[in-house]
Amino acid sequence: MNKLAAFSLLVQDDIREVETLMRSQAQGYHPDLNAALDLILKSGGKRIRPSITMLIGRILGASHERLVIISSAIELLHTATLVHDDLIDGALLRRGMPTLNSQWSPGATVLTGDFLFARAAKLAADSNSIPVMNLFAKTLTIIVNGEITQLFTSRCIASREDYERRIFAKTASLFETSAASAALLSEASQHIVQAMNDFGRNIGMAFQMIDDILDFSGEQATLGKPVGSDLRQGLITLPALLYFEQHPEDDAAQEILSGKCVEESQRVNVLIESIRSGDSIRQARVEARKYIDQALESLAVLPASIERSALEELANYIVDRDF
Amino acid sequence: MNKLAAFSLLVQDDIREVETLMRSQAQGYHPDLNAALDLILKSGGKRIRPSITMLIGRILGASHERLVIISSAIELLHTATLVHDDLIDGALLRRGMPTLNSQWSPGATVLTGDFLFARAAKLAADSNSIPVMNLFAKTLTIIVNGEITQLFTSRCIASREDYERRIFAKTASLFETSAASAALLSEASQHIVQAMNDFGRNIGMAFQMIDDILDFSGEQATLGKPVGSDLRQGLITLPALLYFEQHPEDDAAQEILSGKCVEESQRVNVLIESIRSGDSIRQARVEARKYIDQALESLAVLPASIERSALEELANYIVDRDF
Fold it and tell me: Would you say domain B2-320 falls under CATH 3.55.40.20?
């Protein structure tokens, strides 16, 4: 938590407002939706996206109220996609908390996800900005299209291009929207909107890369799931890609590069252990660091301020974190 | 089809544009989404909502392009909710065509519904009107909250209030939005927006009542499902409510009024036959007619024109139809 101190202190009241607004979204609707929202929001998360929105918007002079509204819209949109994802994957836990689908019927879970989409769209409309509303709807399309593509694409595809497209759709697109929305609500110049867009995208790419690294380098107890769970599901992420590039002699690597999954679990264990003990984890961190460096460059368009320093710290935190 | 002639002739080119715009929404995304959209849109429907939007908007002078955009947004929103509904209900056919969930996995069906929500939201944002966007998101919330309420509420509730709330959420809210959006895009006065809102709501209420009547009075071959299928599922609609009010001596009616479902299928058959052969079908049509009469009164705020006559004809068609 120490690492988080400065930027999270600056926005902690804002984040509380964002969470309060999110929690209030079921008020006046079916009472069980309140219970669902409580359960879903309890698992929290790091709230990096709203921190970005609030900090950028404060620097650029956007209305505090509209920043809180769009931050809540973005977090609820993210939450809605997680509710449907967990249902589709049959996941029972998320961040150590029971998922909605572990407690509710599939039908109720689908509809609760839909309800969250509806409330997110309403909040986005409440931001009172056509460009923000447009961006919001475009991002939702990108995220869902990414999920559909992943569902319909064969497992065990070892391609950089595919990986980058995937993590953009899954994670970076929403970080991009968090940052760009703040600039749009500030009626900043096109140049600044673009810079903030790039800032968000680059830290989003790095954020997902680090998540993918931790899936290999972490410990089962901290991860709350087996080490290498992506690879076990046939999802090839950066550390594996780097390992394959440098170990073409590895039997399992050859098999995957030829387009086949390694199915036998003992062989998958050996491959995961090779990736963990080799150099590709470190190299993957170097690649993630490059995205952060690019993100930091984009911040140069903003005036020096404690909020800009907080954004720098947040960017560094993303790539340095080990949880 | 003859009954449809005048109003549908007036808008047939518009409806073609609306359908083309809807079909184009998967372009540039995962190719299987195109196939899904084709399948889903093939089952068509009467396209009453876009006819209302186009006719009102034309009278009030809204931009043709924006009317086409919001009509497509509303129809796609409706389609998205049907995709999830059919999945939840396990329905294999809709209007005689196979449902998406009858051919795709549950996960792919959930995500396709989400994709349609996303595209509907994008189109709504493209309408370039904050009030329309707001109305759109509010209506989505009402529809989904209605579905959740129905899922969580016991079956066999014989209450007028419950019935009216249900058909408003399920059907009339979206008709209301179709009509009000056209007025909002025309920047009509608040008085006219309200009148159009009421017009849409009242014909929507009547539309659903007639659907509920046809579920009893129709024939299995035309309905594509067993006669009285709502009642068989424990859903109490207007004809049943009227029958219960007037036949308190009926055993099955007593059972339902005391809060229990009639489970034995032979007894349900007898009850359905009693409702079919009694007077409550006719009385239900009289009630639906009252909503249409109110709707027609709301049209008085519009200048006399062939479009206004078409709206009158459309309103009468809704209550006179027998399919």
Answer: no
